[in-house]
Amino acid sequence: MPILPIDTGRYGSPEMRRIFDEENKLQLWLDVEAAVAEAQAAVGDIPKIAAQEIAKNANTKIVTLARTKEIEKETRHDLASMVQALSEACSGEGRKYV
């Protein structure tokens, strides 16, 4: 028996499943992190180079779902694991502003 509406035929279309896919969710979170960093740089809260580095690394090819899952075993929090994984991916100025 389905627990969530997305598990049924009515709401569980391939398009809907893609929207709620874990990798897609991770990419959307990374997109938000990049946008926030760019906005913070635009108003002078963080250096522009830091925002550029964060935006460059805010990609699931760099911040992988596998790595976030590994971190989540320790943090027990999916969003915190994404933040830590993105921070790890930034080696320069961006690391301290994620």
If you had to describe this structure to a student in words, what would you say it looks like?
This protein is 61% helix and 0% strand. By secondary structure, the protein is mainly α. It has a single domain (22-97), classed as Orthogonal Bundle (Fumarase C, Chain B, domain 1), CATH 1.10.275.10. It is elongated, with a radius of gyration of 16 Å. The termini are far apart. The model has no long low-confidence stretch (mean pLDDT 93).
Question: How are the secondary structure elements laid out?
Answer:
Elements lengths: L13 H6 L2 H21 L5 H10 L7 H11 L2 H12 L9
* CATH topology group: Fumarase C, Chain B, domain 1
Described by strand count, sense and barrel closure, the largest sheet is: none
Number of strands: 0
Output the structural class.
mainly alpha
Cα(first) to Cα(last) distance is 41 Å
> What's the CATH class label?
Mainly Alpha
Count up the helices.
5
What's the CATH architecture name? Answer: Orthogonal Bundle
Q: What percent of residues are in strands?
A: under 5%
Radius of gyration: 16 Å
Fraction of helical residues: 55-70%
Q: Which stretches are poorly predicted, pLDDT < 50 over at least 5 residues?
A: none
Q: What is the chain-wise order of helices and strands?
A: HHHHH
How would you state the average pLDDT, rounded? Answer: 93
Looking at CATH, the homologous superfamily is: Fumarase/aspartase (N-terminal domain)
Counted up, domains total 1
Shape: elongated
